[in-house]
Amino acid sequence: MAKRDRIASDRPRSTAALFGHPIHPMLVPFPIVGFIGALLTDIAYARTANIMWANFSIWLITGGLVMAALAAIAGLTDYFGDTRIRNAPPALPHMLINITVVVIELFNAFVHSRDGWTSVVPTGLILSIIAVALLAVSGWLGGSLVFKYGVGTPR
Amino acid sequence: MRTLQHGLAVAAALAVTAALAGCGDGGSSFDRKTQIGPNPKLPAPHQYLIPPVRIAKVIGWAPGEHPVAPPGMRVQALAGDLQHPRNLTVLPNGDILVVESQGPNLDPVTRPKDLVMGWLQGRATSGGGGKPGPSNRITLLRDTNGDGVLEGRSVLLDHLNSPFGVVFADNYLYVAATDAILRYPFTPGQTRITARPTRLTELPGGPIDHHWTKSLTISPDGKLLYATVGSNSNIVENGIQAEYNRAAVWEVDRASGRSRIFATGLRNPNAPNFYPGTNTLWVVVNERDELGPNLVPDYLTSVRDGGFYGWPYSYYGRHLDPRVRPQRPDLVARAISPDYALSSHVAPLGLTFYTGDNLPAQYRGGAFIGEHGSWDRTQFNGYKVVFVPFANGRPSGMVQDFLTGFLAGGSTHGRPVGVAVDRAGALLVADDVGNMVWRVSRAG
Asked: Does the predicted interface ipTM exceed a cut of 0.95?
């Protein structure tokens, strides 16, 4: 810590970091891939009615949710750990949209835990589409935080 | 800042919980009597985010406690210290066979939900009195003078593969294990079978083996056996391939073991019985779950050769199940509506037609049904033995409670399963989590 303080950057600093590498961006690929994957397997199930795809969907959503919770802890730690992050305009919408995605996918997990066709069609598939659309927006905002505002990057 | 973070998390959790719980049961305002008899009222299917679930905690029976029969009847504990007794049969010499059985536990975890369901099922089928010991065996009880007090007790057969059905005929004992019908040479009076069995007919066992109880009965002419084979899922969520030759009643030639499918579309049929003096086969059937607390009613029905009774595509004739794709309009078009609804989720597993003369005359010719009790509704249903009056070989009136008092508030002492009539004409009831066999006879 002491060493880091000496090279204090003017760029927003990541509080939840391992040896200078922010943890949040290491974890977000899991829910991103999980939720997009679930949308794809939902589409495959809707087209084939092969229950294997619906089973893939619920595992992808469940795994995505677990990793999203860990990513959220790291993200919130960063958010509340440095005023400069909170002052970056994309930060608040990035957080709120991601929380919305997690809540939608939590509902989606329960819908996907029904048996058979209605575990996916139509409600599960619709929720997956909405969640992935929102992910694209929040992902872009997260990118802005790093590439425009330099969150967690060295001087 | 920490407080804000905490507040956000709590608010989100509360919102989600409220939204999930918002889908109430609705079971309390529903008159369950409207779902008994030939034309049950069927509400629209309702699928939940979290389906209503309530499982009675098993507390077992303290010494002296027993279920309650109508006035003028006497309830005796015929046998205790059993290990999950599920089915009963009475031999010509009066000996009583108790099938003690536990499921094979072959259901794989294919979804996260299966982990939760496995835990719930464990709660519903364990606990109660007695130490866990070896099950999957057949215990012989001997009550020579028919007074409800045993003169002998022995383990007739041991190390069976989740047995359920058992039939005696012509010096053979037929045992339906979960994967085969076994035939043992047997003479009534024997208290132990050491002979190796013949595997008469293979039945669908694993993989999965979701509904594992294979019941058995014999045709009036003694030539054919009828075995029930339950579905491998609630509503084909394990794929239609897993349902091959399941949700069906099988007919088996007793001499050769050759089999054919007698009737289909029966989700979890159990306790096949020919109505006395007829060639009409009856079964009780556990219908599908997770369409609401009042859907789909379980039922008692006669079974026609070649008949299709709906599962999985439809229920009560042509009421389509929205969860099944692809649908089969060709099968639904000829789906038979069952004879007599018993109300939703009562879980009938035992059936016997009463032909004895110990109980009052009103019971002669009617059906006793063991209702194991509900889990997927918030108001308990079942958990008792009921009586359905018959006239001219058909159900002729409202269900009557016969043996109650299993439930104790939110807990249960036991759960009735198989029923049989002993040589003296008393009704016997297997109680699988109470680990008892109860005997109900006329008092005095």
From this structure: no
